[in-house]
């Protein structure tokens, strides 16, 4: 008899997005004449930069001729892309990362979900709350948690973000082995400074723990005092893996390209305490289960590092950041305390009431869709997330509607 992985039965349905869809559908049915502006989505809205499109087209043309055609590429990514990443994202910023420490992939979602596979099932895992749900659900699937009780999984350590700590969690009180951190943060837009990040790295060194650092929103950092990478922090190469993505940097959410940095001196341990390089394990996993990103997509990603590509992606990100500033300012003018919105494309609003109650109010009175914070974890209750991924016109119109409806 074929039996299922019973850990899947512990998973909660994604009530968040299905609930949002249900409420939006009901609104549309009851108000067919009213237009809706979606400020809840975490997906980009603007086209790929011209430099990427040009490289993409050229690479597709290469596939049309036997002499330039490419079949399977190296699983870890083509050297031309890994070299550019190492140089521009790390070496030029003073970090000593080598091309063969970079694993190109089809998304930070996949990487942040898959990396847990190379660690033992009985390790203690710490996740942020509010959280990007992939970190939690993939550990549930792997059997690292107990049941879901009162909004939380037994066995996980929740790193609580709240108004007092500015949504940058404190170190856990009891030792943990695997720590998920995400800065700039989805959903709160919070950021961490070097001193704050150093505390986590020191903790990991002291406890022989490992940090999975999700830097999918790194491109949104404009403040020079903030680290762009965990590897800017002393000792991080021993205890951290970093995930990056071209999704929010260059509009690759549908095109798919990302990468993970696994330093060669980052270690994990056997039960009797022998150290094993994580790089070796991840390389084995990646080459066994993944066949690389398509050649044209890697060429399109490479173009991000050209002079035009840099200027064009900067402009793209600036546009979303300017939306974020506008949203935050408008909400603050209405008397709401906000987090994020600078160095991040999300504005996290203390809505002074139940998250869903505020969601319904914005939907019904303003025709604006947001994301209820409680959908990201218990600590998100009383907050909503507004996303800057939209056109300037939509953002302005949405904020005017919110102003008219709430003031
Ligand atoms: N990590 C975080 C924190 C995200 O918010 C997202 C997407 O919304 C991702 C990873 C996924 O990135 P990718 O498109 O590279 O899979």
Q: What is the element layout, followed by pairings?
A:
Layout: H1 15-30, E1 37-38, H2 50-62, H3 79-90, E2 102-105, H4 108-114, E3 125-129, H5 134-141, E4 148-149, E5 152-153, E6 157-160, E7 178-182, H6 194-207, E8 210-214, H7 236-239, E9 240-245, H8 247-250, E10 258-261, E11 267-269, E12 275-277, H9 278-289, H10 295-302, H11 307-333, E13 338-340, E14 346-350, H12 355-366, E15 368-369, E16 371-372, E17 383-387, H13 392-406
Parallel strand pairs: 1-15, 3-6, 3-7, 7-8, 8-9
Antiparallel strand pairs: 2-10, 4-5, 9-10, 11-12, 13-14, 14-17, 16-17
Bound molecules: pyridoxal-5'-phosphate (PLP).
Pyridoxal-5'-phosphate binds next to helix 4.
Describe what this molecule looks like in 3D.
The chain has 407 residues and is of the alpha/beta class. The protein folds into two domains: 6-47 and 310-406, Aspartate Aminotransferase, domain 1; 52-307, Aspartate Aminotransferase, domain 2, CATH 3.40.640. The chain has helices at residues 15-30, 50-62, 79-90, 108-114, 134-141, 194-207, 236-239, 247-250, 278-289, 295-302, 307-333, 355-366, 392-406, and strands spanning 37-38, 102-105, 125-129, 148-149, 152-153, 157-160, 178-182, 210-214, 240-245, 258-261, 267-269, 275-277, 338-340, 346-350, 368-369, 371-372, 383-387. Strand 8 (210-214), helix 7 (236-239) and strand 9 form a beta-alpha-beta unit. Helix 2 runs antiparallel to helix 10. The N and C termini lie far apart (62 Å). Bound molecules: pyridoxal-5'-phosphate (PLP). Residues 42, 107-109, 112, 132, 182, 186, 214, 216, 245, 247, 253, 258 line the site of pyridoxal-5'-phosphate. Pyridoxal-5'-phosphate is lined by residues 42, 107-109, 112, 132, 182, 186, 214, 216, 245, 247, 253, 258.
């Amino acid at each position: 008899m074929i039996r299922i992985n019973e850990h899947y039965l512990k998973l909660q349905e994604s009530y968040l997005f299905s609930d949002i869809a249900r409420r939006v559908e009901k609104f549309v049915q009851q108000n067919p004449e009213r237009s809706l502006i979606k400020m809840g989505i975490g997906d980009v809205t603007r086209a790929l930069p011209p430099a990427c499109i040009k490289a993409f087209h050229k690479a597709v043309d290469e596939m049309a001729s036997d002499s330039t055609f490419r079949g399977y590429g190296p699983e870890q990514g083509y050297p031309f892309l890994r070299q550019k990443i190492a140089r521009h994202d790390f070496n030029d910023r003073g970090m000593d990362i080598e091309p063969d420490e970079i694993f190109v992939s089809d998304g930070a979602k996949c990487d942040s979900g898959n990396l847990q596979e190379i660690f033992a099932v009985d390790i203690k895992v710490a996740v942020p709350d509010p959280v990007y749900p992939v970190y939690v659900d993939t550990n549930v699937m792997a059997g690292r948690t107990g049941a879901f009780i009162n909004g939380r999984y037994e066995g996980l350590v929740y790193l609580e973000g709240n108004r007092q700590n500015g949504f940058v969690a404190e170190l856990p009180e009891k030792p943990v082995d695997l720590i998920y951190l995400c800065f700039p943060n989805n959903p709160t837009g919070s950021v961490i400074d070097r001193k704050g990040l150093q505390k986590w790295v020191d903790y990991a060194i002291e406890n022989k723990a490992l940090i999975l650092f999700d830097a999918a929103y790194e491109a949104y950092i404009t403040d020079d005092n903030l680290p762009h990478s965990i590897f800017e922090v002393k000792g991080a190469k021993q205890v951290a893996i970093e995930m990056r993505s071209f999704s929010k940097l260059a509009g690759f959410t549908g095109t798919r390209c990302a990468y993970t940095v696994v330093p060669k001196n980052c270690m994990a341990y056997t039960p009797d305490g022998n150290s094993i390089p994580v790089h070796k394990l991840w390389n084995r996993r990646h080459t066994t289960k993944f066949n690389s990103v398509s050649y044209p997509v890697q060429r399109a990603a490479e173009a991000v590092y050209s002079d035009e590509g840099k200027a064009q992606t900067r402009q793209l990100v600036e546009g979303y950041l300017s939306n974020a500033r506008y949203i935050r300012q408008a909400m603050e003018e209405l008397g709401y305390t906000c987090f994020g919105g600078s160095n991040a494309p999300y504005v996290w609003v203390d809505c002074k009431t139940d998250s869903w109650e505020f969601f319904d109010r914005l939907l019904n009175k303003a025709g604006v869709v947001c994301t209820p914070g409680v959908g990201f974890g218990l600590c998100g209750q009383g907050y909503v997330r507004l996303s800057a991924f939209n056109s300037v016109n939509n953002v302005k119109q949405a904020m005017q509607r919110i102003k008219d409806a709430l003031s």
